[in-house]
Amino acid sequence: MEKRYQFPEGFLWGGAVSANQVEGAWLEDGKLPNCTDVMVGIGLDARNPGIRYNPETQKYEMALKPDKVYLSHEGIDFYHRFAEDLKLMGGMGMKAFRTSISWARIFPHGDDETPNEAGLEFYDRLFDEMIRQGMEPVVTLSHYETPLYLMTEYGGWRNRKTIGFFEKYARTVMERYGKKVKYWMTFNEINTIYHMPFASGGFMPSSYDPQAPDFASNYSQKDLYQASHHMLVASALAVKACHELCPGAVCGGMVTSSQIATYPYSCNPDDVLGAMQVRRRTFYFTDVMCRGTYPAYIHRIWKEQDCQPVMEPGDLEILAGGAIDYLAISYYRSSTYKSDFKMESGAGSLTSGAGGAVNPYLKETTPAPWSWPVDPKGLRYVLNELTDRYRIPLFIVENGVGLDEKEIPGQTIEDPERVKYLEAHLKQVAEAIEDGCQVMGYLWWGPIDIVSAGTGEMRKRYGFVYVDRFNDGSGDLHRSPKRSYERYREIIRANGL
Predict the structure, then answer these.
(1) Measured CA angle at 339 (ends 334, 342), to 5 deg
(2) Torsion of CA 138, 139, 140, 142, to 10 degrees
(3) Which of 463, 328, 348 is closest to 396 using CA atoms?
């Protein structure tokens, strides 16, 4: 008899998006550009965003590339169509819906004296509609959305002043929406600052070399650790603000967990030790956010690489007093570490996961052209690792699969690969809960087709709902549920599978 998988009462079934991937209206109602507005995709443009250095002003400035299509500028027009989209989400029976507040809608420059009322009113309408459709708003304060002005004028998160700007922004929206939002998160995937400092870290390099091979080459390790320290202090201050301004609400932090699910390629001690060191790149952030203190192992790195961040008196006390209430994760794939492996471009790098080497025991990948390794048990492993380490509630706020799909008029899109991926991962979540993990909920990434963050395209579709928009910007934006829409509705209705 096939095993039934039941989930706890009150489990938060839902979906997740970000403002910069769905809203569009990038310069509407007072909003000014954020960091991702100058990127086609945070993966594609990670090394060369639409930015140039002006030697006359000695500042960076926006320089959009005329040969590129910035789909995120219009997104899926969620800014104007959110009521329609949230009705579709509610139709699945979703209990929660995650999105971010676009910081530049509230404080367009980031350092504004007063907030933009038009931006505040938009999120009032948005959260009201979520609640009307039976969904709890799950709100990320910063999802790769640092106001571009803060970066070009101040250097962004490399500059300590950004802490104050962020705290003012966090307190403004928490005071405004405190009675509507019970679940807050500070930074999306804060640990991705290492390989995407512009988008994730929201800061400019401290120096510019015109002979550098690309923009990203200007970043230093010291810059990275300085920016991350400021973000961690800001995160702690936001947690404190939440507890003061939003009675009954909780505030979490978030990481992508692919590096936690890093397996040694073999029992070679170099593979085992190397995998541990890769995992610590994420634990560095979770240790601070969950425990309120820097881990012992980071001090050697700071010393050997001469990259210890500057800390002000009181910073460590702020971290100690601002531990998160829950830890949120994204999970898409595991990684494998091989000590003598050299990352190469091509199919091997696509199927290998974030750690490089191909795991010979993982026989399945997502369909081409992205071909990510599929490892549902890796999610169970991550949940248990984090439970053993921190003993706090966990929230899966991203899990999903991108597929290349085409709509045939009059026919429902059949997406068995998505259903298979969904079911396989949910079974492992249920196993983790039986293991003793306290999992608050499961939010499918991209319950409606959105602009892909990494590649900046519509072709990579994650949704249970199809959106008629294409990589060249064409399409009439109509929405239509896929077959997976019905399956997720069935799972939510049964509270299991």
Answers:
(1) 85
(2) 170
(3) 328
Return the closest-CA partner of residue 403 out of 412, 394, 416.
416
Q: Which two tokens stand for residue 457?
A: 């395209």
* Residue labelled with tokens 């230093």: 220
* CATH assignment of 12-494, among 3.20.20.80, 2.30.30.100, 3.50.50.60, 3.80.10.10: 3.20.20.80
Whole-number Å distance between alpha carbons of 187 and 256: 11
**DSSP designation for 333:** -
pLDDT by 10-residue block (mean), the chain, 497 residues: 93 98 98 98 92 92 95 98 98 98 98 98 98 98 98 98 98 98 98 94 93 93 97 98 97 96 95 94 97 97 96 98 98 92 43 64 91 95 98 98 95 98 98 98 98 95 98 97 98 98
Is the separation of the CB atoms in 235 and 321 below 8 Å? Answer: no
pTM exceeding the 0.85 threshold for the entire prediction: yes
Q: Are strands 183-187 and 335-337 parallel, antiparallel or unpaired?
A: unpaired
The residues that are catalytic are 189, 398
Strand (E) or helix (H) holding 442: strand 439-445
Segments making up each domain of the chain, as ranges: 12-494
Rounded Cα distance between 237 and 423, Å, is: 38
Residue 31 to residue 34: CA distance in whole angstroms: 9
